[in-house]
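JOB MANIFEST
job_type = single_chain_structure
chain_count = 1
residues = 171
[input]
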Amino acid sequence: MRAFERIVSRVAFFVDGAAAVFLAIITTLTFVAVLMRYVFNLPFPGSFDVSRLLLGVAIFWGIAAASWRGEHIQVDILWQFLPERVQRALDIFADIVFCAFVGGIAWMLYWQVWRVQASRQTTFELAIPIWPFHLVAWLGMAFCVLVLLSRIMRAILNFNAPTQTTAAADQ
């Protein structure tokens, strides 16, 4: 199990880094486009289209990274008052629902990649094919499904393991 968690942690580290790189590219493109427009009075063709497409990619990869670390949005108004075992069961249930939702998005995005490739859609100014951006976004969602499945498996296998709060209370 430890080896599996190390592999998933490496994949999550890669996914996290990829999301950061995509955001850095978007930031650089935007900065250069603004600099060229307002300082040099020159347009930067295609920067908006590429930034827009990369933003979708960065969002999907960011969701995968946040899912592994459990940093996605959670509403825990009542959760904090529940017993620990119920909290764990509720966390597993929430991850299963989230995984099903993300799996549905990944499934739809998979077919969207091939539809866009078949239609030969391109960006307006530079005629860059759009389907590779959809493919990279789909990879982010596929990683998210794998990460969520590993979180669910880890949570189920560690369901009865003592936590820090119970270990501290036993001492």
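[summary]
The chain has a mean pLDDT of 85.
Helices lie at 2-38, 47-69, 84-119, 131-157, 164-170.
exit_status = 0
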